Amino acid sequence: MKRLALGSMLALGILPPAALAQTPAVVEAARAALPENVRQSGVLKVATSLQWAPFAYMSEKNEPVGFDLSLMRLISAKLGLKFELEDMKFPTIVPGVASGRYQAGVNQLSLTPERLGAADMIPYFDTTSVIIVQKGKTVKDIANLCGMTFVVTQGSVQVRQLNELSEACVAKKASPITQQLYPSSAETLLAVANGRGDAFLTAAPQAVYIARVNPRIDLIPGDVPNVTRAPAGIVVEKGNTAIRKAIALALLSAIEDGSYKALLDEYGVSSSGVPADLVRKYTE
User: Over the chain, what is the mean pLDDT?
Assistant: First the structure.
């Protein structure tokens, strides 16, 4: 596993000079809300899986980058903590946070009943669902996916979304949707590129990015209808009111001072932001 403290990243020159110049001020209310042991440690330990561009991935320079990581760096700074990242398999992120090993987890993890049963989550990103396929393949009708086979990452929200769409197919006497499960996002995307299954259902920003950088992938135009939407959330330990409140206050500050919008704009996902009123509920 890869663990990178923000201080080490600065020393290695991983963060650009502009990022250093714009280090935000500490939000005292957010820092005061932190659990005493976290405040004393001086570190915010964040779990992710570096396989999900443009949210959390390794750049061509072998640097951890992405919207989720930039947001957590911003939140860490507002909490007066060093950002420490650990890279792991996608299905282990929520259990790792639920066990208390990490203070937060991010990887475009949607707020689902299953995850909310194991951990608490603070919404920070919302988007529609689209389909990508191996280059040259087509989808006759994105409003009718019955009978298709989808490649899916184990533990992802798409498992539940496709189950719901499949149930609707069966209810109208059509063929169900089949799923091929893979243990990581990288393996799922490789399966798509290699033509396994018919398609891959995913968030719109991620699909646009993949189709742009991978010549073996095509994006099917249009949003898939009837997909149950849930915003992505920052995972925190269930029942740990202090860490939830602290992170939510830091995120709320970023929304109110414009730094959150600046990140959304930087990554070309401006329409996927969540409103301040939604985040404010998690600061109580």
Answer: 91
